[in-house]
Amino acid sequence: EVQLVESGGGLVQPGGSLRLSCAVSGFTFSSYSMNWVRQAPGKGLEWVSYISSSSSTTYYADSVKGRFTISRDNAKNSLYLQMNSLRAEDTAVYYCARDTAVVAVDYWGQGTLVTVSS
Amino acid sequence: DIQMTQSPSTLSASVGDRVTITCRASQSISSWLAWYQQKPGKAPKLLIHKASSLESGVPSRFSGSGSGTEFTLTITSLQPDDFATYYCQQYNSYSRTFGQGTKVEIK
Q1: Shortest Cα–Cα distance, B16 to chain A (Å)
Q2: CB-based contact (8 Å) between B73 and chain A?
Q3: What is the pLDDT of residues A32-80, one digit of tens each?
Q4: Contact with chain A for residue B64, Cβ under 8 A
Q5: Which of A25, A63, B34, B87 registers the highest number of CB atoms within 10 A of its CB?
Q6: Cβ contact, residue pair B44, A46, below 8 Å
Q7: CB-based contact (8 Å) between A1 and chain B?
Q8: What is the three-state SS of A10-58?
Q9: Buried b (16+ CB within 10 A) or exposed e, B3-20
């Protein structure tokens, strides 16, 4: 069974940093690209970042470029999102999601809530 | 980046109605479009990929069509379980942008 489990969310002050993790199981992690997608309270889905299976390619939404860094450790079956210089508008549930070139984003975690507030 | 525009933002319908949601891309994305259903407090669920390919286990009342820049999601005979928010997403580029969502409400 495919499972993606996010962790690392919480309350952080504006300007602070947080590192999200996503532990995966049930599939060959090293064969798949991955994404982070977020959803602010009461708002729609916003794609945040993409990383290829080998980490050779990464992309970011303009809203987080220069502040967030996506990475992965294929030996640990884990995906990460380092978030720096956090702003109130970064408050959201953050989902990690498996990506395929043909089928799109097919599996999602349950999400972890990040709240940026003083 | 490719922009995705969904319409309508909200749709009021009754059980048994036929419902159509439109998604437009700011440039051609061929057929690289997916549709998701999301219920409150839950992660999105993939319904359709490559514009018209139904995911395994998704009821056949859901269908997708389109290519290039204009796409539709159709639900024939809306069921109580279908009241939710629907999102389109392009995956023609690595920036996997979403539409803003369409909330299907009970009339």
Answers
A1: 26
A2: no
A3: 999 999 999 999 999 999 999 999 999 999 999 999 999 999 999 999 9
A4: no
A5: B34
A6: no
A7: no
A8: EEECCCCCEEEEEEEECCCHHHCEEEEEEECCCCCEEEEEEECCCCCCE
A9: ebebeeeebebeeeeebe
